[in-house]
Amino acid sequence: GRAAYGEKSHEYVSLVRFLMDSCTRGARNALERKKHEECKSILSFVFSLLPKFVAFEDSWALLHNVKACYYRTRGRLPIALRELQNAAKYVHGGASLATLSINMCAVLSQMGRHKRALQHARTAVVVLKNSVEDSSSSSSLTRCTVQENLGLAYFNCGVEFEYCKQPDQAMKMYDRAIEKVESLLLRVSKEEFVGTVDTRSLKSLVRKF
Q1: 172 CB contacts (<8 Å, ≥6 apart)?
Q2: CA 124/CA 104 separation, integer angstroms
Q3: In terms of CB atoms within 10 Å, which end of the chain has fewer, N or C?
Q4: 189: Cβ–Cβ under 8 A, 6 or more apart, which residues?
């Protein structure tokens, strides 16, 4: 890599990008399978060995999000929050901001900081509503992913409104979350979506109601 081609060469930069993307997928997969030590090992490799190219800000933001999720599953919420704050340094809007806001909401809520959690949940809603409009000409998978996350963001708003003792607002958010999920389940049933949408996460969201 670097020795053969030079640190700024296209070949070396492409190799780093490939490693980052592969490690991100591996860490997320390990976390989903509750293989926490495997996830930790992958993340340690990435953060200790790979250079932080400015051009890869989106990838570093995602990796910090995954690292935050790892620490959240281990009950180490202050460290998880710190990792999300690190992720925020690389986030400038769009899908990355939505992901960050959803994760911020989850961590802050667990820490009992519900007003701040609500702020992040509402940010996620705004960002994802804009993404719905922007994704009108995108692939079916992209549109479904955005709508699914929007349903989750509405649900998070409902939860935090409840904690903030605003039941009327909470019910409005829950109603909107249900609308999104029901709409998605109908679309997923169509043949064009078979095999492209993670129906497990949709059904999991439905069970919350």
Answers
A1: 158
A2: 10
A3: C
A4: none
Q: How far apart are CA 90 and CA 75, in angstroms?
A: 25
Q: Which residues of 59-73 are buried (b: 16+ CB within 10 A; e: fewer)?
A: bbbbbbbbbbbbbbe
Contact 180, 147 (CB under 8 A): yes
Give whichever of 46-50, 133-137, 141-145, 152-156 has the largest mean pLDDT: 152-156
Amino acid at 102: I
CB 91 within 8 A of CB 54: no
CA–CA dist 99, 50 (Å, integer): 23
What pTM was computed for the model?
Answer: 0.79
> What is the tens place of the pLDDT at every residue in 162-207?
999 999 999 999 999 999 888 777 655 543 444 333 444 444 544 4
Condensed to tens digits (0 to 9), the pLDDT of residues 47-83 reads 887 766 656 788 889 999 999 999 999 999 999 999 9
Percent helix, strand and coil across the chain, each to the nearest 5: 80, 0, 20
For 25, 147, 148, 184, 185, the CA distances from 134, given in Å and listed in that order, are 26, 12, 15, 18, 21
